[in-house]
């Protein structure tokens, strides 16, 4: 069912660690750990998911994109737990995709990106777009400038490149043994372009 309705989630899981890690790791633990390189938060932000949180004072719902406050710091009180991830139904003529830069399959992403797009089936115009990047700053990053570059346009190669370039300028990536700041910026460009193209292809094929 997940593969059928949200293929992007299956796609993400396929590259998330190895089967042993996936067997004991939980989505809740992944989301609440607040690791900026984690894959699910980027996809959840792109899909406009909400987190349902319960605590001693009751329950509340937080947009996935507002949940991440700083490196390993999330909007969660000491007496609260995440109990549900609510993902909206994918609208008609929409598609989503996720990918990340890995040295080998299952590695944490050196840079990751997830995109959701909705297209008008008649005109081909992009009506909605949400793009999120991981491991490009201290929290999962929503690439609003890139989204703006897509919405209202019939997206072609030039616009995809523009969206990627905007993302590469907006991010504030760390430098470490896996990649310099410049390299990560360029990979942000590459992966925004790549996942958006794939999401568009899926949107155009969906009905
Ligand atoms: C070898 C390895 C490879 C990995 N590769 C990837 C990868 O490629 N991509 C990726 O995204 N992740 C990757 N991870 C991270 C992994 O997916 C898990 O997210 C991580 O290990 C934590 O999962 P856990 O369920 O054990 O959480 P825990 O370690 O149990 O919890 C993490 C934190 O969240 C809190 N917490 C847990 N559940 C909840 C809840 N429901 N409500 C509130 N707080 C909660 C805990 O108190 C703790 O502070 C990898 C991990 C390892 C060890």
3D architecture notes:
With 207 residues, the protein is of the alpha+beta class. The protein folds into two domains: 18-86, 2-Layer Sandwich (Uridine Diphospho-n-acetylenolpyruvylglucosamine Reductase, domain 3); 94-205, CO dehydrogenase flavoprotein, C-terminal domain (Enolase-like, domain 1), CATH 3.30.390.50. The chain contains eight helices and nine strands. It has helices at residues 2-5, 7-14, 19-24, 27-33, 39-46, 144-150, 157-170, 181-205; strands at residues 50-55, 58-63, 68-70, 73-74, 80-86, 94-100, 112-119, 126-134, 141-142. The protein has a four-stranded antiparallel β-sheet with strand order 6-7-8-9. Strands 2-1-5 form a three-stranded antiparallel β-sheet, with no helix packed on it. Strand 7 (112-119) and strand 8 form a beta hairpin. Helix 6 packs antiparallel against helix 7 and helix 7 (157-170) runs antiparallel to helix 8 (181-205). It is globular. The model has no long low-confidence stretch (mean pLDDT 97).
By DSSP (H or I, 4+ residues per run), the number of helices equals: 8
What is the CA-based Rg, rounded? 16 Å
Total beta strands: 9
Roughly what percent helix? 25-40%
Question: Structural class of the secondary structure composition?
Answer: alpha+beta
String of helices and strands: HHHHHEEEEEEEEEHHH
Number of domains: 2
Return the CATH class of the largest domain: Alpha Beta
Shape: globular
At CATH level 2, the architecture of the largest domain is 2-Layer Sandwich
Query: Which regions have little confidence, pLDDT < 50, spanning 5+ residues?
Result: none
CATH topology name of the largest domain, in short, is Enolase-like, domain 1
Bound molecules: flavin-adenine dinucleotide
- Terminal Cα span: 17 Å
How much beta, percentage-wise? Answer: 15-25%
Strand order of the largest sheet: 6-7-8-9
CATH superfamily of the largest domain: CO dehydrogenase flavoprotein, C-terminal domain
The whole-number mean of residue pLDDT values reads 97
Largest sheet: 4 strands, antiparallel
């Amino acid at each position: 069912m997940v593969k059928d309705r949200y293929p992007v989630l299956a796609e993400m899981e396929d590259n998330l660690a190895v089967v042993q890690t996936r067997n004991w790791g939980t989505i809740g633990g992944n989301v609440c750990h607040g690791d900026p390189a984690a894959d699910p938060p980027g996809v959840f932000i792109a899909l406009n998911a909400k987190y349902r949180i319960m605590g001693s004072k009751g329950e509340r719902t937080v947009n996935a994109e507002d949940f991440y406050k700083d490196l390993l710091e999330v909007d969660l009180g000491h007496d609260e737990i995440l109990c549900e991830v609510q993902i909206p139904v994918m609208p008609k003529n929409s598609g989503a995709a996720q990918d990340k830069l890995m040295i080998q399959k299952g590695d944490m992403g050196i840079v990751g990106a997830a995109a959701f797009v909705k297209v008008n089936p008649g005109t081909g115009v992009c009506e909605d777009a949400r793009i999120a990047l991981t491991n490009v700053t201290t929290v999962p990053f929503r690439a609003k400038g890139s989204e703006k570059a897509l919405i209202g346009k019939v997206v072609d190669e030039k616009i995809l490149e523009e969206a990627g370039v905007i993302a590469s300028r907006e991010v504030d990536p760390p430098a470490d043994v896996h990649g310099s700041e410049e390299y990560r910026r360029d990979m942000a460009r590459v992966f925004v372009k790549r996942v958006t193209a794939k999401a568009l292809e899926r949107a155009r094929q969906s009905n």
